[in-house]
Each structure stands twice: as C-alpha cells, then as structure tokens.
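User: Hey, quick favor. My workstation is busy. Could you predict this chain's structure for me?
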Amino acid sequence: MTTNTPRQLSTALAFLLLAPFAVAKTPVATGTGGAVATISEEASKSAMTILNQGGNAIDAAVAAAATLGVTDPFSCGIGGGGFMVIYLAKEKRVITIDHREMAPASFTPAVFQANGKALEYETAVTTGPAVGVPGTVRGWHDALDRYGSMSFKQVLAPAIGVATRGFTVNDNFHHWSTVNEKKFQTFSSASALYLKNGKALPVGTLLRNPDMARAYREIAARGQKAFYEGPMASAIVAAVNQPPVAPGFSVRPGNMTLADLANYESRIRLPVRTTYRGYELVGMPLPSSGAVTIGMALNILEGYELKSMPRAHAEHLYLEASRLAFADRAAYLADPEYVDAPVAGLLTKEYAAQRRASIRLASTAPRADAGDPYPFQDDQSVPLRPAPKPLLRESAHTTHLAVSDKEGNIVAYTYTIEDWGGSGIVVPGYGFILNNEMTDFDFEGPRPNVPETGKRPRSSMTPTIVFKDGKPVFTVGSPGGSTIITTVLQTLVNHIDFGMTMEQAINAPRLSQQNRAGSYAEPGFAGSEQAKALEQLGHGWDKLVEEIGAANAIVFNADGTVTAVSEGKRHGVGSALVQKR
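Assistant: No problem, here it is.
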C-alpha cells in the first residue's frame, strides 16, 4: 500500500464534507426528488452527493459508475464498456449511448482459434486478445458533454475520495476475490492489489487503490483524452501486448495499438421500442441484444392470459418464450455495422404469433430452431438465413444502476468488464482491470457474431425504461451475462402480469432458459414445489447453480413519489436512496 499524499487526503476530506447524510443501508427507499439504486452503498452515496450538489441524473450516474469501478472492480470499471439509456424529461426524448468495447484492428475471425479449432472459453479469458478497446471513459465523456451539467472533475470527486481513503472488504467482495485467486495470481499487478500472500484479502481489510485515484484524477484534469492518448493509453497497450505476468506464468499476448485507442468512438443510437399490455418498453439497440430478445419474448407471451393461469403453467410459457427468443438471438443478432439483422421482422406481433404456435402448452421442447422473420418486414433483398449453432456460455458478471433526478430525467445504465475480474490484467500504475469482452464473440463461424476488425461483440445488457401513456413508470436492469435478458424479462412478467410490487418482483426466485436442455435455477430452487410442478411439464435444471442477476430499479409512483429498489438478498444486498423521504 502507498502512503496518502496531502492532495489525496484533501480530496478524501472534500468528499466527506460533500456527503450530507448517513443512513443505514437499505435496498428499498421511497420519497421525492432524485433517486438511485445500485449494488454498492458507496456508489449510491456518490450519486446522491452529486444530486444534492445540483447535478442531474446523468452527472449522478457517472459518479455512481465511477465509484462502482472502485468498490465492485470485478464487475465493472474504466477498463470495460457499457450501454446507457437516458430519458430527458423536458424534451420527452430517449437517447442511448453505446460505448461497448471494440475489437482492435488486428482482429480476424480466427483470433480465438488454434490449429483450426476454437479455444476453450476459460483458456481465452486471461489473455491479451481477450481485451477489447475500452469504451467506458468515452461513453462518460459523451454523456456528460451532451446531456450532463457537471464536469469530469466534479463527478469523479466522490470516486477519487473512495479510492483514496479506501473501503472495507465485505463478505461479498471477499467471496469474489476468492473466486478470482487463480486469475489474479497470474498477473503481478493484480495480485499486488487484490491478494495477500496469494490469497483473497480478508473480510474487514481496508482496501485503498491510489493508482485508480490517480487514473481518475488524470481524467478529471484532461478529460477523455487522458485515457485514449498519452501515458495512460501507452500503459493500457503495454499491459495488453506484454501482460504483467507473475513469475512462473505465461499468457498469450495481444496486439492492440495506440491507434486503436485514439480511434475509439461511442455511438448515439436510436432506441428499440416495443409494447406489452399497454406499456411501452424502451431499451438499447444492437449490438446489445437485450431489448430485441425481450421484445420477441413478450410479444409471444402477450398471446396468453398469464395472470389467470396456474403459476407453473405461466412460468412454463415464460421459459418456452425465452427459448424461442434466444434461438432467434443466436441466429440473427450482432453488431449492426457488420450484420443487417432483421430486427423489424423479429419484433412484429405477426411473427410472434407464428413463433407462439410452436409452443406446447403441456410440455417443453428440448431445443428450438430459429424462425424466419424476413417475410414479416419490408425487405426486398435476398437475405442469408444463418443456421444456429450451440452458444458459448456468457460470463454472468456486470453491474447495473438506475438514477433519476428531481426534474424527471432518468438514466438506466449497465456496464461491465465481462467475466468476474475481466481478463485479470490490472494496468500497472493505474489500478483498473482490463476487460475480456472479446470473448463475447463466437469463436468460430459462420455466425453473425464472429470477431472482425473494429466490431463490437453482441451483448446481453438490457437497461430498460418503461412508459405508459407517454410517461415513465419504472426503469429496470441487471447484470448477469446472458441471464440479464431473462432477469429483466422475468421481473417484467412478475410486475406486470403477476401484480407483484417491484420489490417482490426483484426478490422472487429466478429461472433462465436460453434454448438449452436445462434451465438455470438459483440455489434452493431444485426440489421445491415450484420446481416439481415445472418438472411435470418436462423442465429440468442445469448443473450450474448460482445467483442470477443483481437488479436495480426505480418506480415512478402515481402520487409523484419515487421508489428506488435494489436486491434484498443477492450480491450482498443493494443500496437504494432518495433525496427526501
């Protein structure tokens, strides 16, 4: 650990003075003014500090995200990328900012192959080629520059304070450090920061990250150029191309250049809009596949009266609709700058009716084939109908946050470094972990989502804002790799169809079907009466058993109050705050 400098101490003291509240951590809060829900108490407080200083939801979202990069570094950070959905209340307009990681110029479709065969996922993760050009800092810059009211210097101050003064390692942080021990042992920079004598830091350890504070201070002073040009960019490229491996280890080097970083751009894209039982759902377009896949599944489910059915039959239909939607996702969806995906056809109600007809009401299907959406859109070309192949399992580790302000602006933001601990490579001198996002590509083709120069891998991130009669009624999103889609979908069904409160909808047991033989289920589900009822319809459970997702939401109540909702039990319990209770 390094000694705090007077400048670092003054930054930390400034942050403490800016935080005018000290409340017990709670996953649900109702009140007026702005609201925030994240998985980290420190991150939620950072957002609230910015709101209390007069910042808007965009400013507060960046502040929360930067703090999550300190307190939840295994899930997210400036070494990764993400998708941000913004609602501007005065303009009644939704903007989406795609700052997904991008493949370096050296990439080819065979980058994750050896001797003509695809690498194993676990082999590819801790390598230089796994690292995509990070987009987070550019995305934050564009969000603040276009829609924020504060500077990088202002919004990064809370995170600089947390990184400088440190935070206490809790059970959840220790658990994921333990999971990552082998990965972090591989790299000297990671083991120096997150391990002690080769083991995870004990619960109760005060963890400071002065190198990350340095990175944030440089961005605060010079803006996004501090990240994409100059010494920090050189350090990133060096870490990718000559990974800082510990003695006795060797990993495959990458081939990233300073030009790859300097050329990175985020994208302002038109949102995806779908409807369900009188609600309008607005979310991210491709290369995020979440909004399209959820739209397909909800269109299928809209043909059933789920609320009047026995619970097992309704959940059976939820799983089967997910199966069909994932079959089409695998076959058609990828970076729109490389693949002309038939999104319009996939999202028609008529196509959903055709897909719905294949569902068996009393039994499950072992595997669904992709449908043909092209006849359902106005497309005069002769398109390729790709044949689906089994999908690689996506890593389930990301973070999602929700922020609103007193003016009614809303941010739903999901961002990530991919696997728990990303590539495992901590950039020496700057304290942040680099992503392994390139492993979200399919390792072999022909597939829409194969690696290519400059391409962004398909994502499952699903930040969503839901409207009714033109007014926002709630926002929701989650981490969880490909289970993000089913977490958000199941939360929507729980809330809209089953009439659960948002708190109940988020805390209900989760199931995830992704066109596989078995569905993913959380610990304790197998053997329950709910599971037995679904087994009678032919459903089975994957051998992988772990928590699914870590959702955050904000509900805009009819009386003008807002309710921020985070996890009540998963991921160490979330943190929800409102400006006035």
